[in-house]
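Hi all, long-time lurker, first post. I run a small reading group and we've been trying to get comfortable going from sequence to structure in the token notation. Rather than ask abstract questions, I figured I'd post a concrete chain and ask someone more experienced to write out its structure so we can walk through it together at our next meeting. Sequence below, copied exactly:
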Amino acid sequence: MSIKDNYKAIQDQLPAGVQLVAVSKTHPVSAIQEVYDLGQRVFGENKVQELMEKSPLLPDDIQWHLIGHLQTNKVKYIASFIDTIQSVDSEKLLTEINKESGKNNRIIKVLLQVKIAAEESKFGLEIPEAKELFQHYTDGKFPNIEITGLMGMATFTDDEQQVKQEFLTLKALFDELNQLKTLNTLSMGMSDDFPVAIECGANSVRVGSAIFGRRDYSK
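-- Answer (accepted) --
Happy to help. Here is the structure in token form:
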């Protein structure tokens, strides 16, 4: 199927009110432009370097989301244009984003990335850490950022019950924090598991290969 057919197939599966973040990491500018021309405005990239190379070559009204692990020393490169950083996994990183956002006279939207997967390789805050960090935010410690919600990645497994349980754990935390300060984004689910994520309460999904096709990483 073509990118256009893939994109329309994904759109047909999304309920009203669920945001699609088209994950364009490793895919060329031409492919991103094609999806943009179909009406998509929110794109996700994993790496700062790649985002900096692509962004100037594409329309200004794209809302770029950084979804990969972010090092504090890279924040300054994207602070002037990034819409949302979905992968905040430490207070140190949040402090740096707050600083660079202030330098650019901006309020940068962020999601707290919570570790819900059983895999050691996954990044993210433990649930108690996320609660503590959110408390610091509600106390006014980070005036130049807006925590709009949470992001999480489930374990890469065929066990749908495990995946569902991990998503429901994040939904429960989202509901708890939402009592303290209104949140609007629960980012869960990727190409392989986004229907389950939506069933569990996700209102933002990150879909790459199901739109753009699989990439050959050996090249």
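A couple of things your group might point at:
The chain has one domain: 3-212.
Residues 160-178 form the longest helix (19 residues).
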